[in-house]
Design a protein that fits this description.
The chain is mostly helical. It folds into 2 domains: 1-37, no CATH class; 49-109, no CATH class. The chain is 43% helix and 7% strand. It contains 3 helices and 2 strands; from the N terminus they run βαβαα. The chain has helices spanning 26-29, 50-74, 90-107, and strands at residues 15-18, 33-36. Strands 1-2 form a two-stranded parallel sheet. The two termini are 24 Å apart. Residues 1-5 have low confidence and may be disordered.
Length: 109
C-alpha cells in the first residue's frame, strides 16, 4: 500500500481507511478518501442502537491490530516524542523499526 506525503496525490485512487474517533470530519476535508469511523453518541441521541453497537464492535476488532502496531513502534520512541535527528533519516529509522517489529511478530507465532 503506498504512503502519500501529500493528500492531493491520492486523487483518482480508490482508498478506503478504517479510522478511529480522532478522524471524525476528515472525510469532508478529503472526499477522495473513503474513511470509515465509528458511530458516536450525541446529546440528542445518548444511546446507540444494537446495529450501531455491532458496527462499532466490528470496526474496533479490525482497528486493534493497527493500534497494537503503533504501540509496538512507540516502544522505540520514534513516534512517541519529538524527532530530533535529520529528516532524511526518519524513513530509514521507521523502516528499521517496522522490520524489527515484523520479525518479532513472526518469531512469536
Amino acid at each position: 500500500m503506498p504512503v502519500y506525503v501529500n493528500p492531493t496525490a491520492c486523487k483518482n485512487h480508490n482508498i478506503h481507511t478504517l479510522a478511529d474517533g480522532d478522524y471524525l470530519g476528515m472525510d469532508k476535508q478529503y472526499p477522495d478518501i473513503h474513511m470509515t469511523t465509528p458511530v458516536k453518541r450525541s446529546k440528542k441521541k445518548p444511546e446507540l442502537t444494537k446495529p450501531e453497537k455491532r458496527s462499532n464492535k466490528r470496526h474496533s476488532s479490525k482497528r486493534i491490530a493497527v493500534e497494537h502496531s503503533f504501540g509496538g513502534i512507540k516502544q522505540f520512541q520514534l513516534l512517541s516524542g519529538i524527532y530530533r535527528n535529520k529528516e532524511k533519516h526518519y524513513k530509514q529509522y521507521f523502516v528499521a523499526i517496522a522490520s524489527i517489529r515484523n520479525f518479532r511478530s513472526l518469531a512469536t507465532q
